[in-house]
Amino acid sequence: MNNAGKARNRIRLLVAAVLLALPIAVGHAQTEREKWLEEQVQALLQRVDQLESRLQQVEGQPQPAQPAGELADATGTSKPTSNELTWQWKNGLSVSSEDGAYQFKVGGRIHSDWYMGSIDDGDFPDGTRFRRARINLSGRIYEDIEFRTEYDFTGDGGGNFKDVYMGYTGWEPASLRIGYMKEPFGLEQLTSANDIPFMERGLTSSLLSTRETGLMIFDEDVWDQRITWAVGVYKNTNNFGDGEEDDLEDGNWDLTARLTGLPWYEDEGRKLLHLGVAGSHRDWSDEPMRLRSRGTFSRGDYLIDTATFNADTFDLLGAEAALVYGPASLQAEYFYADVDPTFGGSQSIHAYYVMGSFFLTGVHRPYKAGIVSR
Fold first, then answer.
1. What is the pLDDT averaged over residues 166-190?
2. CA atoms within 13 A on the CB side of 294
3. Coil, strand or helix at 228
4. Distance from C-alpha of 179 to C-alpha of 108, rounded to nearest angstrom
5. How far is CA 148 from CA 165, 174, 181, 213, 321, in A?
6. Which pLDDT tens digit goes with each residue over 348-358?
7. What is the pTM of this model?
């Protein structure tokens, strides 16, 4: 029923109520009083006819279109809407539209490293430097398109990219991401440098590529984020995402995958057990490679260094586990690498670490979608 019909019904109900009350009101009244009441009723009926005529004229006219930017509420009244931007500080400067379709965030980090010490039969200088000095821009467009770009100004003055990618999250089976990004391998490697317990990652990081250019398909929300998986194909590149070959068949492609599960999760993450496996096949096609790491040091001699050698393939398997029990946590990873050098027989490399932490303040290490988070 439209508004005009509702108005007519209200008026008719009012007149009916007056007519029903008339015998009671005038049952013992004087004749003059009855005559006056009848005149009032007739006047009301005439007024009803006039209002009905006007309502019919209004209903016969085309309704004006609602102005852009306005919505009708339940009563049919137009109310203005706006897409004004909301500014807030949440781990960086965040800007979002009122409807949530657009989200932008500007952030960064500065890690200043001061070091001194000594290593037997090695060089370990004393000094200070900016270990990381980054600025990033990330966000979403049209709700389903994500993007992120980050630049690090350190690196002996040269600087380099850390993340330059775009993605689509509106596909129901999985999300897509393309660009320069981390490969899905290793719990500690995928954990942000802001969130690792120690200043540097362990010796196992020497076996992993930090970032490459490629395409990744992933899902971080299987069974309410209890299971995550990711598969990606990548091209070996430098720190600026550059990688050139005379022919695509020349190789230097990587295929990497990771699967994680959360068999135990209680008390909103204060108690949990994380398990995961990952694998990577890397085609080097007789290109030079080198595995080396300083471990938990950021300067000085490398504690592990294979020197440069040519290799055809490099296969890597990994297993990971993390236990959080209130303020205490325990984390471990094991890597097995099978290297096929161009000259000589196949070589095997084993690497692992175990680390623990305890918060004196009683808080716990947070966890989200297969990664230790902030």
1. 94
2. 12
3. strand
4. 20
5. 6, 19, 10, 14, 28
6. 989 999 999 99
7. 0.73
